[in-house]
Amino acid sequence: MKKSMSNNRKYKFTYIKTTVLTLFCCTLFVNGRTPFEKTGDNYFHVTLNGQAVGTLGDRESAEELLIEARRGIASESQELLFLETDLQIAGEEVLWGKVDRESDVLENMDAVLRSHIQETMHRSYTLKVNEYMVNLASMEEVRQLLQAAIDKYGGGDKFQVELVYDPGREFSVLTSNVVNLSNGQEDDGSVKMEAGIQPVLSSMGAARVTVEEEKDFEDYELGILTMDFAEDVEIVEAYLPESQLTELSLAIDQVTKEQETPSIYEVVPGDTLSEIAIKVNIPMDKIIEMNDSLEDERTTLQIGQELVITVPEPELSVVRVEENYYEESYDAEIIYIENDNWYTNQIVVHRQPSAGFRRIVADVSFLNDQEVEREIIQEEIVMEAVAKVVERGTKIPPTYIKPISGGRQSSGFGRRSAPKKGASTYHKGIDWATPTGTPVYASCGGRVTRAGWGSGYGYVVYIDHEDGRQTRYGHLSKVLVSVGDTVKQGERIALSGNTGISTGPHLHFEILINGTQVNPLKYLE
């Protein structure tokens, strides 16, 4: 009996040992457990952007899962995303440890990355015209913007904008081409791989190559012949944040709205301020306001003189040629007879002009709304114009200088209160206050026609000049020339004084044209 109980205890103990050993082995080798080996780190804690996303059995798996997570997010959008990806992997050597399923770690990484999207960069297009640039959300918006510039001048029904790759650029740069739909070309909205744009500007105004049969006025197909942009247009693809994109309607307004751009106009023969105002389409008073050299509308212009004008122009200018029919009055060109014995300020009109009347068809070139050139294609004179015939001098007239050195202007030209009894209320010259005895010089070379006492002037000198003008010097203290003397410009002719009807020592100076006093300040250099 005792022996049997001893055997039972022995069997029971053996069973327990076997069970424990079996459980230990199962625990050691079951899936999800890392066996203990003396090989270094074998258990890895993975953190992404400071957040724990799981534990894995090797580093490579963590890095591959991160790449997969990024790829998954990027595949959902056509835009360029910037993600914060600070991956931290902390390893340790353990006897055993529970690792997470890779699908769970991938899901955790995806959630963390989505919460750390820094910025979405949209595929966009930058349009550049000279120094102006604007960013638009799509290629179609770029085309609509350029089309709006064409439509502004009435070309929308006949001309459309297409975008083409510029073969002369190393990188993918687009430019524009304005297509004439009436020539059988159609725009399907796609980007065409063509050899650049057709140079419309170079063909504008060129003579027709083919010989055409003679036409009647009714045979012409009037309207816009050609259109294109005056500036080079560049479009470059880019990835930009939404904050840097411009709304299409605002971009159209910026590109097509006229901006005031200062420019220079050079005076040509025959120009007057009123004619220049018509040419540049700017009011005459505004031109005078912009130029300090212009006193008023009567200011004499010099050939080659440069005037500052402000011409309203859009950022993107459009050039076009229109074929138009006109019935109009016209003037014949002036016929000039050059006289080498006359000065350039001497002019005689021998025949007054008479306007004619004609019917014409003309090719008219425009820059935006400004006409820049007109080529008459067909003309019918209904009534012949009569040309104006003008004889004019070619010699440069003499110049005039201030007749004293220094002095203070004490009275100007024109109406004034009489400074003393007997003095004129309309001053016909310029007075400079200066001490008695100041040298007086000839303002221009000429012949002395009076030298001595003159009523009201006191001692006075008159000089006649080659251009028909006369100068007078009054209230002198001493006369140094005689009647009949020929003097040069700048030669001393008298000393200033206080003679005649005078309120103090000064020089009175006059310039007369055709016997009438004019404001000397307009003629002095």
Entry summary:
The protein has 525 residues and is of the alpha+beta class. Helices cover 19% and strands 39% of the residues.
Defining key terms:
ten-stranded antiparallel beta sheet, alpha+beta, six-stranded antiparallel beta sheet, 5 domains, 525 residues
Description:
With 525 residues, this protein is of the alpha+beta class. The chain has 5 domains: 43-115, no CATH class; 124-198 and 221-256, no CATH class; 273-311, no CATH class; 319-396, Single Sheet (Resuscitation-promoting factor rpfb fold); 408-522, Glucose Permease (Domain IIA). It is built from 8 helices and 30 strands. The strands form 7 sheets. Strands 19, 22, 23, 24, 25, 26, 27, 28, 29 and 30 form a 10-stranded antiparallel sheet that branches. Strands 3, 5, 6, 7, 8 and 10 form a 6-stranded antiparallel sheet that branches. Strands 9-13-16-17 form a 4-stranded antiparallel sheet, with no helix packed on it. Helix 2 packs across helix 3 (102-114) and helix 4 (139-151) packs parallel to helix 6 (248-256). The longest helix is centred in the first third of the chain and has 28 residues, at 2-29.
Count the DSSP helices: 8
What helical percentage do the residues reach? Answer: 10-25%
Fill in the CATH topology of the largest domain: Glucose Permease (Domain IIA)
Radius of gyration (Å): 47 Å
Structural class: alpha+beta
Distance between the termini: 153 Å
Mean pLDDT metric = 82
Approximate strand percentage: 35-45%
- Seen as an oligomer or otherwise, the chain set is single chain
CATH level-1 class of the largest domain: Mainly Beta
What is the annotated CATH architecture of the largest domain? Distorted Sandwich
Total beta strands: 30
